[in-house]
């Protein structure tokens, strides 16, 4: 009885230590997000003292700082945080659901589908503003359903879905190249923003729609977090645990696509944030526990840091999507090489 009790106590203590460690890691990530957010508001081409930043946030009309912080830096920083949360949360949901680190919206064409529709709306239909964003959102969902449908044969295999997604992306890329070849000079720059990912046109009125999407779709993902964790064990095991895996997979896919498409509609496809956030979170937190919130925080850190680097720490100013693309491409090659060496499939 003593041995059984001591074993039980050891298991409880180990579980408690893991919870404390996880809470500490989450608090650290949240603190990094807050620190980067504060840095973005305070330090740019000019320095704004913290007390002036706080005053602007509280509604004070401080000459110079009210415009620099309130009109320029604050909308940009808020969009970086919200877009990072959306990309990180949506990306890890796909990766966990399909049990494959390559199954991110960047790789399987969802982000590019939203961008392709936006480019078509800008160049061919001469639309702008909310109309372009709505077209991008519905196009991202349509591409996701198309890829899912083409890959659904006797269940959805992660490798098959990735290959179908790559093929769809290639077709969309050809379509975008044709549209850009017909684009007049005045719309070419706006179209290119949708292909690189940028927060250069950040406005405070863009924050509310993205926040609403995060609350609705992110809340849905978090509510289905336990079912998502069950899918990591495989469809048969999930069914044994009482999870309707087809219905759960469809719900999670719609929520994840909603996050990715809405973020893409506001900022364009910020490359590889959805792809990198999950693996980085898994490295930090291990495989125990849900990766949804950790990956979301990692996504916010990546976008904030990449945007600041692209603005102030490189020889020239680059959109945030260029910086994240430079980080993500080598990691993608690393994953492919590792899978090839292990003799496994994608």
Fold and architecture overview:
This protein is 77% helix and 0% strand. It contains 14 helices and no strands. The protein has helices at 2-42, 50-57, 65-98, 110-123, 130-151, 158-181, 185-196, 207-223, 225-231, 235-240, 245-267, 273-285, 292-313, 320-341. Helix 1 (2-42) runs parallel beside helix 13 (292-313). It starts with a helix and ends in a 5-residue tail after the last helix.
What are the main properties of this structure?
346 residues; globular
Please give the largest β-sheet: none
In whole angstroms, the N-to-C terminal distance is 48 Å
Shape: globular
Radius of gyration: 21 Å
**Beta-strand segment tally:** 0
What pattern of helices and strands is seen along the backbone?
A: HHHHHHHHHHHHHH
- What portion of the residues fall into strands of 2 or more residues? under 5%
Computed structural class: mainly alpha
Enumerate how many helices there are, as a single number: 14
Mean pLDDT: 82
* Low-pLDDT sequence parts: none
